[in-house]
Write a structure and sequence with these properties.
DNA_primase_Znf_CHC2; zinc-finger; Znf_CHC2; nucleotidyltransferase; 596 residues; 5-stranded antiparallel β-sheet
């Protein structure tokens, strides 16, 4: 029996890591590449080939070759050791406590042979009626559990397996009242369930008649946790993380999450080799973590287009928070499930449905609108509350959250900065009143000018000295910034004040808009900066004048509306105020022309 060090001595860490990461030289004894454990555009992941360790300067992941395989394959140390030992032809002894799950795989393998031996007959006829070829039936190792109480149990006893081993593997059920044990799977076609490493962790069974339950899975065991397993991933994973250019012509690079075993099998048979299925659950956070680790980049959710299917899709979308996937939602246009559609020859319909799938942003927003409507404040309030969980992540790298916020603003007529303020306020989120909603509605004129002014001040904070401090701000975000940045000397200082706050996204957007120099060369960039700063100084004056004029015009409009319901003496007073304001507007205009 070999040891861990025996295995390590025969391994080249760069060769092992190189199967997961495209490594390039980075100096003597060093290799670098894009980290497989987090998304990045510049390589911060390094391998020290002399010392036998890896380290990522971005996410801080590090370790030896064993820990790398553990993280990459989602394995225990014992399984990673065995995997690498097999690679170099060394046999290692399992440690205490590691043997139990290994026993479960062996017991499951024994049961699979039993189920496969009983396939000929009604079960095989069923699969053929569903359009499966003999090659597909063999590839997915389909079988049948005979209709009897203890067929598997009796067979196991003749081979020296105990009741306890079958119970631990979930192959037997025990009657709590009398202690009797009997086969869990009886009179069902059998779908072996393998994890992403190809280990046989459990089974799914389907009845051939109308009895209930229609489907039955292995219960939770040390080897089988349904929230961590995706049916068909052992076959679909070969395409994950590969670009279309690196795949064979016609091959599918997208992961397609469907509902059932037959959907997965039939889709694979018809060339949709990225199909997988969750086992009676929506996608879980564990699924998302695993898929991200395996290099999944694009996921399509293909569920039934009914209320239950829509809920399943949204739950699946909820679980990919923080995972860097492009997620799209779709369904078969005919209303059939994918297996039936393909059996009917509608390969083109499936392919078109996948091509036309709605991205997560539009799917979420459209589903909320269809459910609640936008005709009144109550509908808009419910839409915002439904979208809130997917909008409240303010990480600039979360493009989906930003997209949902943008779509919500466009659809509901809400100011982006007002939405960010609401998202950041727990009190307002709990009590989104009609007043709050009205205050979030997108406005023009005065508030637009306030944002323009803030943009210029971000370009040159020294222009804050031009403000006299008496201005009252209509835009709440602008008001907060103006109060907090007195004395600031740089845009970085202003951003630091609001780091992690809802206003940060607004400031970053305004800063980029204000300093967009396009494709200027280094030689002309300094001249550009000088011109921008000169413009900013003049713009602050112009914007303040425009803001003052806008305020006075708004006041004139307000007073004019009051005249109709006022008494004659009150009307005279209102008219005098209006005339004074009009003269002030003309004076501001003359002053503005004079400055020009």
């Amino acid at each position: 029996m070999g040891t861990k060090e025996d295995v390590r001595s025969r391994l080249n860490i760069a060769e092992v890591v190189g199967e997961y990461v495209n490594l390039t030289p980075a100096g003597k004894g060093r290799m670098k590449g894009l980290c497989p454990f987090h998304n990045e555009k510049s390589p911060s992941f390094q391998v020290d080939t002399d010392q036998g360790y890896f380290y990522c300067f971005g996410c801080k992941a590090g370790g030896d070759v064993f820990s790398f395989v553990q993280r990459s394959e989602n394995l225990s140390f014992g399984d990673a050791l065995r995997k690498l030992a097999e690679r170099v032809g060394i046999q290692v002894e399992a440690k205490y406590g590691e043997r139990s799950s290994r026993d479960l795989y062996d017991v499951n393998a024994f049961a699979l042979t039993y189920f496969r031996d009983h396939l000929p007959g009604p079960a095989l006829d069923y699969f053929r009626r569903r359009g499966l070829t003999d090659e597909t039936i063999a590839a997915f190792e389909l079988g049948y559990a005979p209709d009897g109480w203890d067929g598997l149990l009796k067979h196991a006893r003749t081979k020296g397996l105990s009741e306890r081993q079958l119970l631990e593997a979930g192959l037997l059920t025990e009657n709590a009242e009398n202690g009797r044990v009997y086969d869990r799977f009886r009179g069902r076609v059998i779908f072996p369930i393998r994890d992403h490493l190809g280990r046989l962790v459990g089974f799914g069974g389907r009845v051939l008649d109308d009895s209930k339950p229609k489907y039955l899975n292995t219960p939770e065991t040390d080897a089988f946790r349904k929230g961590e397993v995706l049916y068909g991933l052992d076959k679909a994973r070969s395409g994950l993380g590969k670009s279309d250019a690196g795949k064979a012509e016609g091959a599918e690079s997208e992961l397609i999450v469907v509902e059932g075993y037959m959907d997965v099998i039939t889709m694979h048979q018809h060339g949709f080799t990225g199909a997988v299925a969750s086992l009676g659950t929506a996608l879980t956070a564990e699924h998302a973590t695993l898929l991200e680790r395996l290099g999944a980049r694009s996921i399509s959710l293909m569920f039934d287009h009914d209320e239950a299917g829509l809920k399943a899709m949204l739950k699946g979308l909820d679980q990919v928070l923080g995972a860097k996937f492009r997620v799209r939602a779709t369904s078969v246009p005919s209303g059939k499930d994918p297996a039936d559609a393909l059996l009917a020859g509608d390969d083109a319909g499936i392919r078109q449905a996948l091509a036309d799938g709605v991205d997560e942003v539009h799917y979420r927003v459209q589903a909320a609108i269809e459910t609640h409507g936008t005709a009144n404040a109550e509908g808009k309030r419910r839409i915002l509350m439904e979208l809130l969980p997917r909008m409240q992540n303010l990480d600039p790298l979360d493009e989906i959250a930003e997209g949902v916020r943008t779509a919500a603003c466009e659809t509901l007529g809400i100011k982006p900065e007002a939405l960010l303020e609401w998202i950041g306020s727990k009190a307002k989120r709990r009590t989104l009143t009609d007043t709050h909603l009205a205050g979030m509605s997108a406005g023009r004129g005065e508030e637009e000018n306030e944002l323009k002014l803030l943009r210029q001040l971000l370009i040159d904070p020294s222009l804050l000295a031009k403000l006299d401090g008496t201005k009252s701000w209509r835009n709440e975000s602008v008001r907060k910034v103006m109060l907090a940045v007195q004395g600031a000397t740089s845009s970085e200082t202003i951003l630091d004040v609001f780091r992690g706050q809802p206003e940060e996204q607004l400031l970053i957007r305004l800063l980029f808009e204000g300093r967009d120099s396009g494709g200027l060369s280094r030689a002309t960039n300094e001249q550009y900066e000088q011109k921008v700063n000169a413009y900013a100084a003049a713009a602050v004056d112009d914007i303040q004048v425009a803001m003052d004029i806008g305020t006075m015009r708004a006041e004139i409009e307000f007073l004019t509306k009051q005249i109709g319901g006022a008494t004659p003496p009150e009307q005279m007073g209102l008219l005098r105020q209006i005339q004074d304001l009009q003269r002030a507007v003309e004076a501001e205009k003359r002053g503005r022309r004079g400055m020009a």
